């Protein structure tokens, strides 16, 4: 069809006018910059994801092995000649050590080893120094076992554990005074025979810290309790104080220079380095108020100071996000200020408040620096607190402080524990953030 | 506009004064928002405040139930009396005042609660019901007065925010009348509604006149003409003219009023 025959055709009507079918230079430039910006964004996210994957990958790579522990499985004869059935606690671990060593020695001889080690004393590198205490506890709990041969899991020494996890090899063993290459041969044979096995390491999750030379026994359980009691203190103090402060500042306080000053200070406090709160806690709670050192109570108080600004800021933000028309509606039907806040504003702000609180708690849970200053670190987490009061008041550690402590120790077995501890800490943090997200999804109201 | 099925009666001579304002001044910081307003608002009458945007009609309305108290920088001078009592007297608790002077806002603002709870909230906090049965009765009565009962009686537990705009506004009116106020203030109640919902609300306002003194702020002069018996014209913070609606619209005394209603200023 020709243009002349159809004067309404676009080509004909476009005489001299700007065509929108060809992109002009300015639009081209604009589109290009838009595209470029989009690529910048994608590149930034990709970088972030890459580092996140590297981080999580290295944590898992290094830490997962902490969740397995090597045990020897050999029958131990509880010789009634050496153990007293009437008074089982009279025998110390010095009595038990040879019993265990003999049992392992017997198995070694069955497997054709012997000459290399002379006698049962040569077995001690295979056995954890804590193994005797573990079996002794079991016998004390049940004295009838004396005289019997029990099938028992014997905690293996940390070098053996390291060998099974690839941390120790023949080359490093030949330079190690604690273990010989011959021991590794024996371990290989015992593993084939089923007398040495790696099993899931519950003791790492529930157990107590152990001394420098007994990495194989160390667990994070007590530090977890320490963190738990601290979080109770933080939650119990910072939630009510923070929410009350926010409600007052947001809904009741007059807007003047004084409240402005308070606001600026709260924002600044949120940015204060946590170690400053630590030294404040040391000065005020321990040196001035004489609260017990290293106690979760003090740790909780310090972390409360640190968490308060976070909670106040997020609570105020969620109060501000409640539309003013709701307040007007409440006042309009004759509700008092307080009724309007507590009946209408607060319920709507609650999901935001809870989210902020949980994020504040998660932050506090991972905080280490202030705990160093009030002494919640070091080789102290060897006893479970007995009861609620001692949970708050007895010296304890906290998960991040325990991880820091392990990372400092010389034995590479502790390095693995530190990474394992980080995995546990991250699981808690992820769980708390997931709860925060769930709460927000579940209770968010639209109006 | 469309024809209204009702025609507001114009006889207001025998009504008492409900709200008396004398030389009211309102300042927002340095801005003098209301200048020297004196007006007598009658009982059982619909009074319309009209005027261009920013002329102070809403501000003056909000003085009557002291909603301006919530604005820190607002300052009010002069005298406003309801039933002969100064509402800015030191003895007055604004909460008590607002139970007596209900308010309906420009944008429907039901609480994000059930329809029932929306209406029951006022009576509950003012202790108007002794038990659940009485409360049910109050809620039903208020929803009937709000001309929304038939639409929501089967879903009183449904959220009030799930209703349509017009229904929400009538719910808000029901909520306002549930506390048994004597004065009902309405701040552009139909500005967010379509013509059909507007018609329903206007009809409702005319019915409410039998029990309340209704003060309505509106941008629509047709609406003022349809629903009100008295009209006050505000301009730049001044009350320019106040009188019977018929007179204002047919024979305005002030040239500014005439310009506004004929569309020359606004």
From TrEMBL, chain A:
**Localization of this protein:** Cell inner membrane; Cell membrane
Where is region (Disordered) located? 1-25
Q: Which key words are in the record?
A: Cell membrane, Membrane, Transmembrane, Transmembrane helix, Transport
In this chain, composition skew of type Low complexity spans 1-15
Molecular function as annotated in GO? phosphate transmembrane transporter activity
Q: Which GO terms describe its biological process?
A: phosphate ion transmembrane transport
Q: Which GO cellular component terms, listed alphabetically, does the Swiss-Prot or TrEMBL entry include?
A: plasma membrane
What's a Pfam family this protein contains? BPD_transp_1
> How does the record classify its membrane topology?
Multi-pass membrane protein
- Give a yes or no for keyword Transmembrane in this entry: yes
Domain (ABC transmembrane type-1): residue spans on this chain: 224-436
Per its UniProt entry, which superkingdom is the organism in? Answer: Bacteria
Transmembrane residues, as ranges?
A: 39-61, 220-249, 269-289, 295-313, 345-366, 418-439
Family statement: Belongs to the binding-protein-dependent transport system permease family. CysTW subfamily.
Return the protein name. Answer: Phosphate transport system permease protein PstA
- The organism is Roseivivax halotolerans
TrEMBL record, chain B:
Q: Which domain of life is it from?
A: Bacteria
NCBIfam families per the record? 3a0107s01c2
Q: Which GO terms describe its molecular function?
A: ATP binding; ATP hydrolysis activity; phosphate transmembrane transporter activity
What keywords were assigned to this record? ATP-binding, Cell membrane, Membrane, Nucleotide-binding, Phosphate transport, Translocase, Transport
What PANTHER family does this protein map onto? ABC TRANSPORTER I FAMILY MEMBER 17
In terms of Pfam families, this protein maps to: ABC_tran
Role:
Part of the ABC transporter complex PstSACB involved in phosphate import. Responsible for energy coupling to the transport system.
Topological type in the membrane: Peripheral membrane protein
What is a single cellular component term in the Gene Ontology annotation? Answer: plasma membrane
Return one Gene Ontology term, BP aspect: phosphate ion transmembrane transport
| UniProt-recorded name of the protein | Phosphate transport system ATP-binding protein
Q: Where in the cell is it found?
A: Cell inner membrane
Which intervals hold domain ABC transporter? Answer: 19-261
Supply the source organism for this entry. Roseivivax halotolerans
SUPFAM superfamilies, from UniProt? P-loop containing nucleoside triphosphate hydrolases
């Amino acid at each position: 069809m020709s243009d002349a025959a159809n004067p309404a055709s676009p080509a004909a009507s476009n005489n001299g006018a700007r065509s929108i079918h060809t992109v002009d230079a300015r639009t081209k430039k604009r589109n290009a910059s838009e595209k470029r910006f989009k690529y910048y964004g994608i590149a930034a996210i990709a970088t972030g994801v890459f580092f996140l994957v590297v981080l999580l990958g290295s944590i898992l790579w290094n830490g997962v092995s902490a969740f397995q522990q090597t045990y020897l499985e050999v029958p131990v004869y509880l010789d009634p000649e050496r153990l007293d059935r009437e008074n089982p606690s009279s025998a110390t671990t010095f009595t038990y050590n040879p019993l265990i060593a003999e049992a392992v020695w017997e198995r070694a001889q069955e497997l054709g080893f012997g000459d290399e080690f002379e006698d049962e004393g040569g077995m001690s590198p295979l056995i954890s120094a804590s193994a005797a205490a573990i079996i002794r506890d079991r016998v004390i709990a049940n004295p009838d076992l004396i005289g019997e041969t029990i099938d028992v899991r014997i905690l293996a020494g940390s070098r053996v554990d390291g060998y099974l996890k690839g941390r120790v090899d023949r080359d490093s063993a030949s330079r190690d005074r604690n273990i010989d290459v011959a021991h590794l041969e024996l371990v290989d044979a015992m593993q084939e025979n089923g007398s040495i096995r790696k099993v899931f390491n519950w003791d790492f999750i529930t157990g107590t810290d152990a001394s420098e030379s007994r990495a194989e026994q160390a667990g994070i359980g007590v530090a977890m309790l320490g963190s738990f009691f601290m979080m109770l203190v933080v939650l119990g103090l910072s939630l009510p104080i923070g929410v009350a402060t926010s409600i007052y500042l947001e809904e009741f306080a007059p807007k003047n220079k004084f409240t402005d000053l308070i606001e600026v200070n709260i924002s600044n406090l949120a940015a204060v380095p946590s170690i400053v709160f630590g030294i404040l806690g040391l000065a005020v709670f321990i040196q001035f108020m004489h609260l017990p050192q290293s106690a979760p109570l003090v740790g909780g108080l310090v972390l409360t100071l640190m968490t308060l600004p976070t909670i106040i800021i997020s609570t105020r933000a969620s109060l501000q996000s409640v539309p003013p028309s709701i307040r007007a509606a409440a006042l309009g039907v004759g509700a008092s200020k307080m009724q309007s806040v507590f009946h209408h504003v607060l319920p709507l702000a609650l999901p935001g408040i809870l989210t902020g609180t949980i994020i504040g708690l998660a932050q506090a849970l991972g905080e280490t620096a202030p705990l160093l200053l009030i002494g919640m670190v070091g080789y102290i987490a060897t006893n479970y607190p007995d009861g609620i009061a001692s949970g708050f008041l007895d010296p304890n550690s906290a998960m991040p402080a325990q991880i820091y402590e392990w990372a400092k120790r010389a034995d590479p077995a502790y390095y693995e524990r530190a990474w394992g501890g980080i995995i546990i800490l991250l699981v808690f943090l992820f769980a708390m953030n997931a709860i925060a997200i769930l709460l927000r999804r579940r209770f968010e109201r639209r109006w | 506009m469309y024809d209204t099925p009702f025609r507001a009666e114009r006889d207001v001579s025998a009504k008492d004064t409900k709200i008396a304002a004398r030389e009211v001044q309102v300042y927002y910081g340095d801005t003098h928002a209301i200048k020297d307003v004196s007006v007598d608002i009658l009982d059982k009458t619909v009074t319309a405040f009209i005027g261009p945007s920013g002329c102070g009609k809403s501000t003056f309305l909000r003085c009557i139930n002291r909603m301006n108290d919530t604005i820190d920088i607002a300052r009010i001078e002069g005298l406003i009396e309801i039933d002969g009592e100064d509402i800015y007297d030191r003895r007055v608790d604004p909460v008590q005042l607002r139970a007596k002077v209900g308010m309906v806002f420009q944008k429907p603002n039901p609480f994000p609660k059930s329809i029932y709870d929306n209406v029951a909230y006022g009576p509950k906090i003012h202790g108007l019901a002794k038990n659940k049965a009485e409360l049910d009765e109050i809620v039903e009565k208020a929803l009937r007065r709000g001309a929304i009962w038939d639409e929501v009686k089967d879903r009183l537990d449904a959220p009030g925010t799930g209703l349509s705009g017009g229904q929400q506004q009538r719910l808000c009116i029901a909520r306002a009348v549930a506390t048994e106020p004597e004065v009902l203030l309405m701040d552009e109640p139909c500005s967010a509604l379509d013509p059909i919902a507007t018609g329903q609300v206007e009809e409702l306002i005319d019915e409410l006149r039998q029990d309340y003194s209704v003060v309505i702020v509106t941008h629509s002069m047709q609406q003022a003409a349809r629903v009100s018996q008295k009209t006050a014209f505000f301009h730049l913070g001044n009350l320019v003219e106040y009188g019977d609606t018929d007179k204002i619209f047919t024979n305005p005394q002030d040239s500014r009023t005439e310009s506004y209603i004929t569309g020359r200023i606004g």
